[in-house]
Amino acid sequence: MSAAAGGDGAKALVVRDVVAGYVPELDILRGASLEVRDREIVTVLGPNGAGKSTLMKAIAGLVPVRSGSIRMFGDELVGVPAHRMVSRGLAFVPQTGNVFPRLSVQENLEVGAAARGARDGLSDDLGRMYQLFPRLGERRRQAAGTLSGGERQMVAVARALMSRPRVLMLDEPSAGLSPLFVGIVFSKVREVRDLGLTVLVVEQNARAALAISDRGYVLAEGRDRIEGEARALLENPEVGALYLGARQALA
Amino acid sequence: MIQYVVDGIVVGATLALGAIGLTLTYNILRFANFAHGEFLTFGAYFALVFAAFFASAGTIGPLTFGWGFLVAVAIAIVLTALLALGLDRLLFRPLRRSDVTVTLVIASFGASLMLRNVVVFLWGSRPEYYSRNIAVSSEIVPGVRMSGDEVFVVVITALLMLALHLFLTRTSLGRSMRAVSDDPALARVAGIDVQAVIRWTWFIGAGLAAVAGILFGLTVQISSEMGFNLILPMFAAAILGGIGSIYGAVLGGLIIGLAQSMSVPLIGPAYKPAVAFLLMFAILLVYPKGILGDRS
Q1: H/E element holding A160?
Q2: Contact in structure between B254 and B38 (CB atoms under 8 Å)
Q3: Which of A123, A128, A198, A184 is nearest to A152 (CA)?
Q4: Alpha helices by DSSP H, chain B
Q5: CB atoms near residue A242 (< 10 Å)
Q6: Nearest Cβ partner of A101 from B176, B189, B296?
Q7: Engineering a disulfide at B223: which of B17, B22, B100, B127 sits with its beta carbon 3.0 to 4.6 angstroms away?
Q8: pTM for this entry
């Protein structure tokens, strides 16, 4: 145990054999495991209903974990209330409803910094976000609910970054965005990693996500099925099969 | 006629303060709290009890009360807020887990009845006044008479609203409250302690209700029924302004107050309560979500 814990300390995120679900009788994750190394971008792929979003929510403390362990830089996260994750260094951007619509852009960002506690550096952090997303600077006084889908996604990511996290989790950041914005969002994910963050992304848009990732996992039926370098996954026929198979089943 | 406008503003100020609390709890806890009227009643009686302790302090200028009364007001605010927190802990919080909003609303009806009976038990059902001093009205501008107490009511209300506005927009806790009201699930993800924010919401909503009750007691009278009589106009104010909007509650309070007051010379005082609701219906026909309601 102690040896394993020591080894895990070097890793940003270690998810081991996690069983989780929203209601007691129905497990959505049935023994999912993954590892994310410090300053890595890792993408989780998988067909609809594979448990990708549930995995993120389990890590974020939003779905009860029945067994298994989730460690971030060696600290156990299972059992930590969701609102304390931010102060542990974990920031989560949900897929939908990820901005406060009646708050202005700037207020959304300020709320993001609130849980950090320290009041100093707030204006520095705001400045950095407006540098990263110049569009948000132009709209800082506008209510977030009035922005376009792509701009909202920027607000959501910036809000998460305001908490100065060590690990950032993005649930389908490209969902519902135009191809132009998909490109912008993923290039920002790269920039964010270069600032020293570790990023875990869940995506349907496999190609765009793997293009900026170091490694990837394919999730199916609540378990991790395939793990590999992003480039290798892109060329893996089995990945294509799992993906296209799911798409065809839906259509 | 101008006199009725001024009277309407005085009543409207009280309604507005009460409606802010209603709209805050509705917005953050997502239920219509019918026991909110009793917070006004309790606030008024708490102040009555403590005002008696400080009665010897004399009066300030044209007002019918002195500094001691303001101390009593502060104590009443805290006690009323604690009453609201206790009610939330014992009644509303366990019921919130059920996810059926109507349960909370009916429970608040029950709490309202129970609290009203507690008031009668503790203080009797006879109307009371803070002071036997007569509030002397003087002509402020030609044709408009206001007593010192009435001016006090309007000034205090304006100051409290300004303070609330600054609190909600300039402080971290205020922004967190608005974030929770926008999206409680996201607020939790963003690291906000939603339970703590809910406690502050009760504290502020009930505190403002206590002030509203005390101001009503100053300009009208204190009675066990006052909160019950004011709850429906307060709801009308909150709804026509756009439920969930604090500025809407203020605007709604003033509109209802003015409409009730100005209907007196036109159709007589007996129909005052009906006027509030007729106006609410008329405004909702034009603005289904209230004047300042969320249009997204």
Answers
A1: helix A149-161
A2: no
A3: A184
A4: 2-29, 36-53, 67-87, 93-96, 101-123, 148-170, 172-182, 184-189, 194-219, 226-241, 246-267, 272-286
A5: 21
A6: B296
A7: B127
A8: 0.86
CA atoms within 13 A on the CB side of B160: 25
The single-letter DSSP state of residue B270 is: G
Q: Which residues contact A199 (CB under 8 A, 6 or more apart)?
A: A40, A41, A42, A167, A168, A169, A170, A189, A192, A193
Give the CA angle between residues A25, A45, A249 to the nearest 5°.
75
Let me know: does A200 contact A168? Beta carbons within 8 Å: yes
pLDDT digits 0-9 by tens, B93-134: 888 887 777 888 999 999 999 999 999 999 998 998 988 777
Rounded to whole angstroms, the Cα distance separating B234 from B34 reads 10
Residues of A in contact with B190 (CB under 8 A): 86, 111-112, 114-115, 159, 163
A198: Cα separation from own chain's centroid = 10
Contact B36, B109 (CB under 8 A): no
Q: What is chain B's alpha carbon radius of gyration, rounded to the nearest angstrom?
A: 19
Q: Which amino acid is at B93?
A: R
Strand partners, A43: A201, A216
User: Which pair of structure tokens corresponds to residue A138?
Assistant: 């132009």
User: A62 — contact with chain B (CB < 8 Å)?
Assistant: yes
Would you tell me the crossing angle of helices A122-132 and A149-161 to the nearest 10 degrees?
140
* Partner-chain contact A97 B186, CB within 8 Å: yes
> Collapsing DSSP states into helix, strand and coil, what is residue A68?
strand
List the single residue in A with minimal CA-CA distance to B194.
A83
**Could you tell me the CA-to-CA distances from B112 to B19, B80, B116, B212 in Å, in that order?**
16, 14, 6, 17
